[in-house]
Design brief:
Number of domains: 3
Largest sheet: 5 strands, mixed
Structural class: alpha/beta
Shape: globular
Number of helices: 13
Strand order of the largest sheet: 3-2-1-4-5
Oligomer: single chain
Order of helices and strands: EEEHEHEHHHHHHHEEHHHH
Amino acid sequence: MASEPIYVGIDVAKATLDVCTTAGDAWQVANDDRTVQGLCARLAKMQPALVVLEATGRYELRAAAALAAAGLPVAVVNPRQVRSYARSTGQLAKTDRLDARAIARFGAAVRPEPRPLPDAETRELEALIVRRRQLVAMITAEQARLETAPPVTRKQIQAHVGWLRTQLAKIEGAIDSTIRRSPLWRAKDELLQSIPGVGATTSCTLLALLPELGTLKEKEITALVGLAPFNQDSGTMRGRRRIWGGRARVRTVLYMAALVGARWNPVIKAFYTRLRAAGKPGKVALTACMHKLLIILNAMVRDGRAWDATHAARA
């Protein structure tokens, strides 16, 4: 009789990794290069069906990369999904070992699909994009303070805003250089920016945070980003469809692209106008435009085809 497949859950912290398997094994190791290599060797002997880790602010990258390099099937999942699953099973307590067990059980029940991890260049671009967003947020906050700042602090805030703008320009230059030195990224960037409404920020965010663009089917890519509408029906109640989960940072740039596209992109503008004429609220219409825009982007990257309004209107 064949043995049950083994699923491994790893709860990641800055200094430690708590490991639990559906076979009942549980142990803790340090989250450092030498120990992680030993963990890979130990898990390889078990031949697990899947190793699941939560995304925990990049602390999971060392282990996930090492496990993938060792040929083990790895899935990095949203912590909120695991926590919701744990609550659904009645697990309310939270410790590192309990979390690792819940992650392993989540892997066995849900079986998330292993996806290739971002390479070093993609992680570098992602870090630059994250830093750009942080700088923009700081500039916005300082400018808001400047409106009500007393004279004694006004010059200091103005100087800080100037310094932040200098750093922002450097980061944007680094993002552009990173994209330009990769022929593949450069080609994709030119394709993406050929679409009215898609600028440099949207393009580089998609390159770094949505590397699956052009490789998945329509339903898969929209679900991955969190733009697939979910039913809200129960019994005789028929609720509005809602989007949930997915990659929030990608949705943010797609929202801005759809907002611009609703004015300047002939395909998105016509689609938005038709939805509004049918009585759809503005935000609902814009979300639908984001969905349509993502499908168009996915098809363009898949086919290596630059923007063509006639072709895009059929998407």
